[in-house]
Amino acid sequence: MTISSRNLNLLRSSLRLRPIGKRGFASHSSEPITFSVPPEFKTRTPPYAALLTRLDKVREILNRPLTLAEKILYSHVVDPEEAFAGKNGQIRGETYLKLNPDRVAMQDASAQMALLQFMTCGMDSTAVPASIHCDHLIVGHDGAEQDLKASIAVNSEVFDFLRSCALKYGIQFWGPGSGIIHQIVLENFSVPGLMMLGTDSHTPNAGGLGAIAIGVGGADAVDALTGTPWELKAPKILGVKLTGQLNGWSAPKDVITHLAGVLTVRGGTGYIIEYFGEGVETLSCTGMATICNMGAEVGATTSTFPYTDSMKRYLLATRRGPIADAASAVNNLHGYLRADNGAEYDETVEINLSELEPHINGPFTPDLSTPLSQFAEAVQKNSWPSKLSAGLIGSCTNSSYQDMSRVASIVRQAKAKGVKPKVPFFITPGSEQIRATIENDGFTDVFLGAGAKVLANACGPCIGQWARDDVPKGEPNAILTSFNRNFRARNDGNPATMNFLTSPEIVTAMIYSGDMAFNPLKNKLVGADGNEFLLEPPQGDELPPSGFQQGNLAYLPPIDPKPAPSAEIVVSSTSDRLALLEPFEPFEGRELKLNVLMKVKGKCTTDHISAAGAWLKYKGHLENISNNTLIGAMNEETGEVNRAYDLDGTGYGIPELMIKWKAEGRPWAVLAEHNYGEGSAREHAALSPRYLGGRMILCKSFARIHETNLKKQGVLPLTFADENDYDLVKGCATVETLDLLQMLNNGGADTGFITLKVTNRDGDEHVIKTKHTMSKDQVAFFKAGSAINYIGNLRRQTQAAQQT
Ligand code: SF4
Hints:
By secondary structure, this protein is an alpha/beta fold.
């Protein structure tokens, strides 16, 4: 296809691509920078002056007070006039925003597919600063040193591939052992007023330092990496007012475990959670990061906090004084890092920190929240195991210096009474900096003295990389963790393990009892001398009194790596873990006619759609990982897991039937219930169904990130206009779209509905109404076959036009 220069300009202006080959810190304006920082801090400081200029334009149009989240988000909009003018102020929950994020972070598991897709776009370097973090592939078993060695040996081809991509495209490479993505981002890149994307659902952790940080799939990351505006429906804003001050055993974790109980796993969907109120000033920066981190568990787009003194202290402690000065100035002079007086929230929740008690959430869902004072009763009432089988602390959610120092105070008390943990105790430091600092300050010796195992600075048990051998598979047991997520089988691969989430302090207190009904606030332990004693509430320091230690300097990548275009990307053609991508076929230009491969019953998270654990090793090999597609899903018609039926009634494993239908040229749809695709931002949950011939997911509701991921891969996500229609459609039914072409020709912006004709196998026919949320750009992705196809086509056309 040839393209005229006029059409090319139109295409370019629709997506407003950044110029090829230019790279900077998302400088959106030619305004002079008045908040200057030394050169080595430049790519880590938001372009405050340009953002303020853009915010002025937004204010002119909207003419109302703005919340903090609105200020940060809207000042990253490519064209405020296009986004906000003529909308009668109907922005939140209505308007699609085209945004230019400042930075991208990618973890090793999801980075593989992000980079494989980025490679297809033919660029020499990334358009914005980016980082790769090797954290998800490290197994926890024997302790840091041995586990790290073994995991590097097993995953070397993946790490070599990522390292070669980093070298070629000028991306920071944080190798295995350096730490967990979100902790490293907090220590190095998160800054008040920053807007970033991360290929991991707990990217909002960076909100603890006043950023807007959003978890996305690899294809979204490629938008930012290629300088293509990233699209997001303007979220509503949920204001959480904090009053009072935490005390005693209560910790920042309890703010979010409590809130998860109030909001449920769906309650934050479509919202940014913005904290405000005098209680905010009492929290540490890392405590706020914990709260933002777990905002992902209520489905929120992200969470953020206004600029506080504790953020400034954290920036100074992490060697970013000039950035702290710039942030203070931009806030003091322009109020950029706090909500305007009179700003309104769509919803508000109030939490009095002074009255907040510790909470324990679970099992199997993070919103089943029980105050500690009622937990013993809940254990009994629900017949949860009465004995604890292991306690795990750390991870990206809770491994701050403050967490570790408070935990150490509990362990020291127990030691003084001659008491040892009753169950295995694991500690996962979030980064090399944390590991080195807690070692320097004596905490590691305290933990080891109690028999704890300190694992590598990596995700380990939090993502199923726990080579657990003390509890047989299938044996019901209870673990307490300070992690953020507790879907079935997430930690040790045992679906019968009940994971309860709580603060590191409560995990630690309870390992000394081993009894799930133990409440450290009122139940006593028995010391070595036979006398009973009550643990004192934990004490700790917000920041290390003698400063953070950097540890092994070999882990530190250059601050601003330059691309090396001649570098080779390392992928073996015989690898079963990495394979270069073939583009998906473009849309055929006619109405879809599909068969229903199965109806999924109940919860269907991205863990059900694209299982993690052992499958993580195939993240870079689409064909191999697709053998896990929907293997965790339950068939609504038979109650079986991983079972679907062909037209002749023959039963298959779900991916087997997908492969068979793909070979037969039979495109398919899957039906599902509510919040389809909740959980981790797992891009393969969209890529694999598409790769195996899936063209439509029709459900009662979607989790936001997953719906977007499906659109990016050319799968049509639809929801029932009337939920009851789910019951009308049977397995193997033929589903035909009646007005898809009309919607596509209108650029998505028509009724918001698509009509389907459904013919069940018994001849029963129904015409049902479904809803779509396709924007103009998403329609373009669908037509091109995928977002990457579209961006790659545009890039090639732009390059060709530049060369003529
Ligand atoms: Fe890693 Fe767990 Fe954090 Fe995800 S939530 S980044 S798996 S530590």
